[in-house]
């Protein structure tokens, strides 16, 4: 009996240390995408699993359980010359929707051009699970198909259209604003109308153009695949969503859509001593001004720079501005500039009063973790939506780029510094954000192991993953109902006509008889 217990304990121990062989596909090289992909990979490595990543980023130090199959920097190949980031501002929504299918197709082609990947695909290695970013690159499902492993997707944003479709989920247009639009979950009739039309356009482009294109690419790049594109599509297990309900609008998720918002936020590290002293000495507080990795302080137009300096010069607070030049012309003395600052760690300093940001999801999430009020100047992509959420949740304000002036920007900044409401709200949301049964890192590890344990976890999937576009939105039902209503209306109209004719005949007969 005793040895039986000992044996089962031993088996249990062996089971616990069993490391999974994981394949990670990180096709996008933008910082905001890699930050999420690499955080997922690191969580799995720390849990003792063995990861092979298809990525453009080679790790600094080699390790036993991490290996990279290097692919080219896809984003670099997309844009030869870097455009001024502010050029994206007036990008029409219609183009954003239409642009996705060719973007996704180009990305797949660039990734598949890699010779390293080609050689890797000829090996017969074994993997338990594949974790892949989903951003218009469904054709790359040929990679997990080749290795015959369970497939987990991740989304670097809230549930986007691709992830909703693959999970059989739908986003009701009545209260889930499209990320391309600038609405909240409380929409006027006109906004709901626009939201519905944009949603229909997106759905149609997705089913009519995007998925067939990806299916075509899948078939041409993976001609020996045993499982079809559709099989793979329906066979994906779960999707990690980079979102958390506390910082977002409440919306439906399937049990396969797992929130891991905050995964990239590491514990704060101590600041370098000069920066620490600079912030400690700022008894009136510090403002951090950083527009993410794409927009440097020097990218601003001259008039904007002068305006910022004028506003900052009138404040008691100190300002830390990511501005990549040796000097800042007309620096009023309270602005510290630099090529790079440890944003995440600065946000954790108790003297930090306001974070001026473009509204990227990485930065706004870091601000939530630390409970720092936000002043947003959105530029492109999802930034407007992130800031709409911030404003709706009451822990920040935003000024649109075309409206930027000494008055609008200065007033918003002063309001955030003066009014305690924003700080209190930010602290409250921070508490909710950090109050979870598992950290986002644990969430990733738990669900990845869960998928491996349950052979893909098909029991979590809704029947709707098997539906087509028409079934999913019940278009067929609505059409039949509309036809029946028309027929009924027509019959009623006919009957009414007969009755009216009889009545009129009678009255005219009466008149004649009089
Ligand atoms: C991790 O995977 C690589 C490549 O398949 C293999 O060489 C290595 O032995 C594995 N390490 C562990 C700890 O399983
Ligand atoms: C939603 O918006 C309407 C119109 O702007 C407003 O009257 C209403 O109070 C808002 N509802 C909530 C719950 O904020
Ligand atoms: C950059 O620094 C140089 C040298 O200090 C200065 O002359 C120039 O005005 C600065 N330019 C900008 C855009 O800040
Ligand atoms: C995918 O297919 C395999 C083999 O048919 C099956 O074992 C697994 O449960 C499926 N996974 C999902 C999520 O449907």
TrEMBL record:
Membrane topology: Single-pass membrane protein
Keyword Electron transport: no
Coiled-coil ranges from the UniProt annotation: none
Molecular-function GO term, any one: glucuronosyltransferase activity
Keyword list, A-Z: Glycosyltransferase, Membrane, Signal, Transferase, Transmembrane, Transmembrane helix
The keyword Glycosyltransferase is assigned to this record: yes
EC number: 2.4.1.17
Source organism superkingdom: Eukaryota
EC top class named in words: transferase
Chief localisation class: membrane
Catalysed reactions, as listed in the record: glucuronate acceptor + UDP-alpha-D-glucuronate = acceptor beta-D-glucuronoside + UDP + H(+)
Location(s), subcellular: Membrane
Alphabetized SUPFAM superfamilies for the sequence: UDP-Glycosyltransferase/glycogen phosphorylase (SSF53756)
GO cellular component: membrane
UniProt-recorded name of the protein: UDP-glucuronosyltransferase
Lineage of the organism: Eukaryota, Metazoa, Ecdysozoa, Arthropoda, Hexapoda
């Amino acid at each position: 009996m005793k040895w039986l217990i000992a044996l089962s304990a031993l088996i249990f121990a062996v089971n616990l240390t069993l490391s999974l062989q994981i394949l990670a596909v990180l096709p996008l090289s933008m910082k905001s995408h890699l930050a999420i992909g690499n955080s997922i990979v690191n969580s799995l490595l720390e849990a003792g699993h063995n990861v092979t990543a298809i990525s453009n980023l080679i790790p600094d130090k080699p390790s036993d359980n991490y290996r990279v199959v290097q692919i080219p920097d896809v984003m670099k190949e997309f844009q030869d010359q870097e455009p001024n980031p502010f050029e994206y501002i007036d990008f029409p929504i219609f183009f954003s929707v239409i642009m996705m299918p060719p973007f996704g197709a180009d990305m797949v082609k660039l990734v598949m051009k890699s010779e390293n990947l080609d050689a890797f695909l000829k090996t017969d290695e074994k993997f338990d699970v594949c974790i892949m970013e989903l951003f218009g690159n469904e054709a790359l499902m040929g990679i997990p198909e080749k290795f015959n492993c369970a497939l987990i997707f991740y989304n670097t944003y809230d549930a986007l259209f691709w992830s909703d479709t693959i999970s059989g989920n739908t986003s009701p247009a009545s209260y889930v604003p499209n990320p391309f639009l600038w609405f909240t979950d409380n929409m006027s009739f006109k906004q709901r109308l626009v939201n519905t039309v944009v949603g229909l356009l997106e759905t149609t482009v997705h089913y009519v153009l995007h998925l067939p294109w990806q299916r075509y690419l899948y078939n041409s790049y993976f001609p020996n695949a045993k499982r079809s594109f559709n099989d793979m599509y329906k066979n994906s297990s779960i999707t990690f969503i980079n979102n958390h309900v506390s910082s977002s609008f409440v919306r439906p998720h399937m049990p396969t859509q797992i929130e891991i918002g905050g995964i990239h936020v590491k514990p704060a590290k101590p600041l370098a001593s000069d920066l620490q002293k600079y912030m400690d000495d700022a008894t009136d507080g510090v403002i951090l001004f950083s527009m993410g990795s794409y927009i440097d302080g020097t990218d601003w137009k001259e008039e904007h720079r002068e305006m910022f300096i004028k506003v900052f010069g009138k404040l008691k607070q100190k300002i830390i501005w990511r501005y990549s030049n040796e000097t800042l012309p007309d620096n009023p003395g309270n602005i510290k500039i630099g090529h790079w600052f440890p944003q995440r760690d600065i946000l954790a300093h108790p003297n930090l009063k306001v974070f001026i940001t473009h509204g990227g999801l990485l930065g706004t999430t870091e601000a939530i973790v630390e409970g720092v009020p936000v002043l947003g100047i959105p530029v492109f992509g999802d930034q407007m939506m992130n800031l709409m959420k911030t404003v709706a949740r009451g822990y920040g304000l935003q000024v649109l780029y075309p409206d930027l002036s000494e008055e609008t920007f200065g007033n918003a900044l002063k309001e955030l510094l003066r009014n305690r409401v924003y700080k209190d709200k930010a602290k409250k949301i921070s508490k909710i954000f950090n109050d979870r049964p598992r950290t986002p890192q644990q969430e990733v590890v738990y669900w990845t192991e869960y998928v491996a344990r349950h052979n893909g976890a098909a029991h979590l999937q809704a029947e709707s993953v098997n539906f087509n576009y028409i079934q999913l939105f019940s278009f067929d039902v609505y059409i039949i109902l509309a036809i029946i209503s028309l027929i009924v209306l027509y019959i009623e109209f006919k009957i009414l006509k007969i009755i009216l004719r009889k009545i009129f005949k009678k009255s005219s007969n009466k008149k004649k008889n009089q």
